[in-house]
Write a structure and sequence with these properties.
The complex is a heterodimer of chains A (384) and B (699).
Chain A: H1 2-5, H2 8-17, H3 23-50, H4 57-78, H5 81-103, E1 108-111, E2 114-120, E3 124-126, H6 128-145, H7 156-175, H8 179-195, H9 200-220, H10 225-235, H11 244-256, H12 269-272, H13 284-317, H14 321-345, H15 363-381
Antiparallel strand pairs in A: 1-2, 2-3
Chain B: H1 3-33, H2 35-46, E1 47-52, E2 59-60, E3 66-78, H3 80-83, H4 91-100, H5 105-111, E4 135-138, H6 143-151, E5 159-168, H7 178-181, E6 184-186, H8 189-193, E7 204-206, H9 209-213, H10 215-218, E8 223-229, E9 235-241, E10 249-252, H11 256-275, E11 282-289, E12 294-301, H12 308-311, H13 315-321, H14 333-336, H15 346-355, E13 363-366, E14 369-372, E15 375-378, E16 386-389, H16 390-395, H17 400-412, H18 425-432, H19 454-469, H20 471-474, H21 482-494, H22 500-507, H23 517-529, E17 532-534, E18 539-543, E19 549-552, E20 557-560, H24 565-581, E21 596-602, E22 617-624, E23 631-638, H25 643-659, E24 661-662, E25 665-666
Helix pairs in contact in B: 4-5, 11-25, 15-18, 17-22, 19-21
Classes of the chains: A mainly alpha (384), B alpha+beta (699).
Amino acid sequence: MSKLLGNSRRARSFRENISGYDKQLNYAVGLLLILGTLLVWAATKQWFASQGLDPQYYVKRHVLNIFIGLLLAYGTTLVDYRLLRAYTPFVWGIGILGLIAVLIPGVGSTINGARSWISFPGGFTLQPAELAKIAVIIGMAMLLAEARDQDSAPTHMDVVKALAVALIPMGLIMLEPDLGEALIISAAVIAIIGVSGAPSRWVVGLLLVGILTGVVAVKAGVIHQYQVKRLQSFVDPTADPQQSGYQLRQSRITIGSGGILGRGLFSGPQTNGRFVPEQQTDFIFTVAGEELGFLGSGFILLLFGLFFIRAFAIAQRTTDIFGRLVCIGVIAWFAFQTFENIGMTMGLMPMTGVPLPFMSYGGSSMFANMVGLGLLQSVHLRSR
Amino acid sequence: MNQRSRLSLVVTQTLVLSLMLALFGRLFFLQVASGLKYQNAALSIQSRDIVNPATRGAITDSSGLPLAMDRPGMQITVNRSATDALPDKGMTVFATLAKLLSLKPADVFTKTRLCGELAIGQRAGCWNGTRQQPIPLTKVATEAQALKVLENPSLFPGVDAAPVPIRSYPSLAGENAAHVLGYTGIVTDSDLLNTSKNYHRNEIVGKSGLEYVYDSYLRGTPGVKTLIVDRKEAITSVSQNTQSIPGNNVVTHLDARLQAATEAALASSVARSRSLGYHADSGAAIVMDVKNGAILAMASYPTYDPNMWQKGLTTQQAKDLFSASKGVPALSRAIQGVYAPASTFKAVSVVAASAAGYNLKARYDCPAQLQVGTQLFRNFETKSQGRIDMNEAIAVSCDTIWYQIAFDQWLKDGGLRPHSSLNDYFFNAARGFGVGKKTGIDLPGELPGRLPDRQWKQDYYDANKSFYCNFTSRAKKSDLTPYLIAIAHENCLDGNKLRAGDAVNFAIGQGDTLVTPLQLTDLYAAIANGGTLWKPEIVRAIVSPEGKVIKSFTPVSNGRAPATSSDITFLHSALRAVATRGTAAGVFANYPIEVAGKTGTGQVLGRNPNGSAKDDTSWFASFAPSSSPRYAVVMMVSQGGFGASVSAVGVKDIYSAIFGVVGNKVNPAKAIYPDSGPPSSIPKVDPKYAKLPAGVMKK
């Protein structure tokens, strides 16, 4: 930091040169954070009380996570994203080390069938895949934007290099295995390559390879049994009625039972009876569906819509290719994650364990989301 | 930015915003378009109903004596939410319980499983309620068994014993009345789908008879406690808690003593017939008040114990109810058995002949047999009587008179080439008396019988033509006799035509004519009362448990019989003559009650399962007293032989009970009804019968 902001001249010029934050983007995220906090509280309050536990356990930690996240977001906006290039190999390397570390027995801990977390004393856990996601986006954007002017397209060699940057962490993530994160990174990879101006056969080819890999993985048994079950229960909810099928059915019923106006915050019987497992994390949207109804959960969708419209505006406005590619990577990440998460709760998408950006409980995810926001604002600040 | 890059950005933006739109659309579909459906689904996930059954109303006779009522029983229940919490999931408790109640351990296991816990195909006997609701193992536990459970809570955790109502048919006057009263049982899944009835799971509902028809009055409203539970089935709150409201009492026109006497008379007639060498496989007897169509007694043979459902029906008992070798006891012969009315139908033929212009006072030839076309038709119940008047013809049951009249009328209507405008006096008279139409009695499953008129012939021909025309290839091997083949050939050519044989057979109630004993009772009641065909009614009023009359049923007329007053006058005297000097004179000799009636001996085609030819249907249809008729009594014994010796004797027994005839004298103290007839006021349903003393109760 001191190198970046070390002297007052630079700090002053930073303030003079910035065009300000994108306010609407901040409002959208701010409202999502507030609503998310209420929903995490609603999801856990009554159940924890009935089990004799602290009903505020989750909401307290959630608020703490948001504070850390806000600091991270602010810190990210202070950094000129263009200087990030210098640190990219370093961030990427740490991400890879983390991903390797979770695979070491004793270091990584397994939750819901995936060895994705590193546990720290005091009950805190970290998910290296979240960090790796950011490293991949910046790394790819750097390679594809490097050393060319506005009108030239990346060469095949550039694309190959960029893919290498993405494929190594993706391979490690698949070993955990964390299908959700791998899919999110894939979405970002394809979006970045597409927008970079690389030959379109790369995009088409990558989509085909992605589909083929999926089919082969299922057939060859590379994908774990629990993932196949989740996919099966999407196609046929009765295939695994006790586990994932149960979760999907309960989730849909919980959202549907909210009706237009909802049952009122903290008053959803489905939520309070804890009929949807994992409700404060991956299924947080069902709380909104039941307690806030169509008006409330529709409003949440509108906030996400506003977020994406503003994010695209930033991507379009910047003249810097690197900035635009970072933006598009972040957008693809958020868009895929949002669609997958909400789609899963409503039975539109198969079940993969990804949290809802800015709303689900979970530290690593929240930190990564806020860094993503910081990147968008950082690009916005420095484009005129 | 190059073109491709810009385009990609636009494409990505469009894609992302369409994905958001898709989410919005899906959200609308779930919450707005299908919100109600999911609200119901959520409610069924969260809520558990505990149903506290209401006391079912009693069914009483016209004096207020209960024919069906709830009596106290002792129920042993298992609470699964308690036994599941035990280390062995309650298996030890179930074993001890099976021993105490002398049940099979496997049965106790099945009975205490929720149906969803068992594999499809192994669910017979499973519990189709919820885990929170106590699951009944038996309702007829002894006091000692109940005390053992209650005194050893440590030995029987989660097991409870409590008094519950049991449906009971106490038979206080020795009556059975199973076919009229019906029975109750647990509501079925398909009943539950009928939301208009507002049934609750495991509720007891009427399944047959009056229990079924008047279920909405009898059932009452069960108390419902709705618990809201969480994922671990722990109760979080109670959303409603209503008290049960007892059902209303149903007061019938039946008299328990008369019902018992009617059943006894029918049973002894069947026994008498068998002692005479007939098969006598089944029978029915009905007593009707001719002034309003009230059913005072209705019996069907063979019968069954209506209490066996509450005791727990065994598979064998369930099979026997419908087994042909046991005479299909489930079938109510009074309303579901159809038979040729035989000579009892001549009362209708009299009305037809009178309408056709025949003088009922004139004399007619009664030869021993009559040639109709190529066929010879014989007198069945009598020999040649020479030239006799119509009154005598009825008394001695001459058939040949009716063959002649029916044949002449058939020729007048054009014979085998019918005119375009037909008189069809016989069919029209029969139709006017309700033959071929349900009477509309307040019991389920009544059959309409059959009026084999020209239209029926045509319909039957259309349906069976191809069978008759391909008889040799389609019929059973055993039916390929030259006679049957010839008949089939004839039917193939012109089976739709009303032949002379059909017309003459119809006039004496044979051939394809079929009536239920109830239809014949209604018909004779109409003759008795001057021509009103009543809609038969068993129930007269609905009375609340506090004694308030909620609804009273007034007599309903099904219309007037097509008989003139002179026809009625003639029939009264002719039918009385049957009992004084005709076919039933021997039975009613010196009998103090003026009975008017008609014997019938119906031929039945076909064979019994053992290969023997079917015996004749024995009928006696009557009313009394003939000078001022009040009661119509009909008895029918299927394969019972002659009308007089079997059924007329049975009918006499019933009249003896009604009027108190002992020997050949009337003893008013023994009469079931006073001279004024059945009671006209609605009785008070005596609260003392709500709890019968143990001594009165029969098993």
